[in-house]
Amino acid sequence: MTQPDILIVEDEAIVAMDLKVQLQQLGYLVSGQAATGEEAVDLAAHLRPHLVLMDISLGVGMDGIEAAHQIHAMGIPVVFLTAFADDRTLARAKESAPYGYLLKPFDERTLHSTVEMALYRHRMERELKASESRLSAIIEHALDLVVILDQFGRVAYSSPSAGRILGYQPGERLGQTITDLIFPDDREIFQATFAGLIAEPGSSQVLELRVYHKNGHTRLLEAVTHSALEVAGVHGIVVNARDITERRQAEIERLNMEEKVQQSQKLESLGVLAGGIAHDFNNLLMGIMGHAGLALMDTPESHPLRARLHQIELAATRAADLTNQLLAYSGRGKFQVEPLSLSRLVDEMENLLETVISKKAVLEHRFAHDLPPIEGDATQIRQVIMNLITNASDALDERVGTITISTGTMETGPLTPCLAGTPPDGTSVFLEIRDTGTGMDPKTLQRIFDPFFTTKFTGRGLGLAAVLGIVRGHQGAIQVQSQPGEGTSFRLLFPRSNRVLDEEQWQSQVGQAYQSHGDILVVDDEEAVRSVATATLERCGFKVHTAGNGRDGLSLYHRHSDRIRALVLDLTMPILSGDEVLAQLRSGEAPGATVPVLLSSGYSSSDVAANLQRYMPINFLQKPYSPGDLIQKIRVCLGE
Questions:
Q1: Measuring CA to CA, which residue among 393, 383, 386, 348 is closest to residue 367?
Q2: What span, in angstroms and rounded, lies between the C-alpha atoms of 29 and 80?
Q3: 243, 272, 289 — which closes off a domain?
Q4: Domain encompassing residue 46
Q5: Does 43 map to a domain?
Q6: What is the pLDDT of residues 362-390, one digit of tens each?
Q7: Is there a contact between 591 and 615 (Cβ–Cβ < 8 Å)?
Q8: What are phi and psi of 291, to 5 degrees?
Q9: Confidence band, pLDDT 50/70/90 cuts, at residue 491
Q10: Residue 574 resides in a domain
Q11: What is the pLDDT of the chain when averaged over all its residues?
Q12: Contact residues for 459 (Cβ-Cβ < 8 A; gap 6+)
């Protein structure tokens, strides 16, 4: 171990020499001697000794106390040697923070113990300062926030990271209680934790807290708390907290995304099944509804069979409504896309809505001014509104209540929380239906869009499943808020359209009296459909050609293209599908490139619709259809 070197400052040479001899005999190295305060300061700066033995009285010039102040500033300890012990001298000496005070004369043993204690104290202080510097550097550069609370919950210390995490500068909250920074719902758990730490020194607890940022926003902190009430220099509760706001949001978003993927996969598989069933049923219903309609046309008003035919037609229509719900659920129920005003659509349904709600329900409207349009199918959106209004009325349970229909816009994106569907990115147009009914518990809320799930005794469980299918088919999403006893809110989010609303150009016309001429080609793989279409069109004066698949239909058209005025073309057929027939017609020259085409299908896909729009002019007719529906569409195709 290196010998400590000592600087002697004494203005009497004999005393200085005696002191040097004593120190050397004790094993110390004397690095220098000085007789004045100024000389002592210069030598200390140059030699950097481990210790300075300083006489207080140094004659003319700077005395020992003044010199000790400057030497102490260099980080070198000073022990005073003096024959004076009066109160005034002692008071002045204390101001320079000496490491010892030796009264002359002193013996060798006293000198040795005083020097050793001064050197030991200085060494300990240096180690303590180094430790404090390391600890300070760790705390100052740590990402975590460190706070010390006294036994009353007041801030006794806060680290610099408080500014980065919560916006407060170090010391800004000193002496203030921390409770008012904690989110109200989390204060009870914090106070319980704090009380437990106060009661059990040395214990630790981990908890999550929402804490207010200085800007008023909340941050989620993961805090490790430790009771250091009995630790010297602390005497409080140490809180080490980490901001996990972004991490928790990312976890929630990941879980939501996984749930949406699982829900989407489930809905997709069920949607394929539902769409296939609906397509097949619509083709079957086509024959029932079509032949019933034709029979009604051939039956006089006074004939007793008309009532039975009406019942057949009505039953087929109700069955068609059910298959349309299946189509909506599968996301294939949208074809006639146009700019729509949700406010105008609801306003036009006013009288109809009044008939389906409870007599004790009050229907309120809150329409946004200058609402942008959406791209949608009016029939499908009406079905959504009817289903949601019916559910809202049922939720009132024959009690007095309010159903509020609101429209407006809001900014949405992939992270906008939705119970179903993917929210549009950008400005969304919303339709909200809110009721003051019984509400739903979280378990019920998670299943409301499942097909065949219902809480109604007479329900089929297809209403909300159809709503979801329609909204998904419109690239929209659904937000749902509900609490038992507090009512329910459904908010439908649709992408905003940049197109301008057009006034309706075509009004319903009575088809039974319509007469025309020329040839019509009907291409459909279902015999019942071809039979109904043929009988209906022949009644109007047309000559009808039929084909059971796309290849035969295309061949027939090429043979009679000079006479065929329009095609009724099924989309889904064997050998050559309807869209493939249409593509070949439009790829050639006139008349195939311009012949009017009426597409028909047991289900419709918005994707197919978008792809076929480039083959204009075309129109679409959803199966099952009545003879009157077919006549109206043919008139539109032919411009008659």
A1: 348
A2: 18
A3: 243
A4: 5-136
A5: yes
A6: 888 888 888 899 988 777 788 888 888 88
A7: no
A8: -70, -35
A9: very high
A10: yes
A11: 81
A12: none
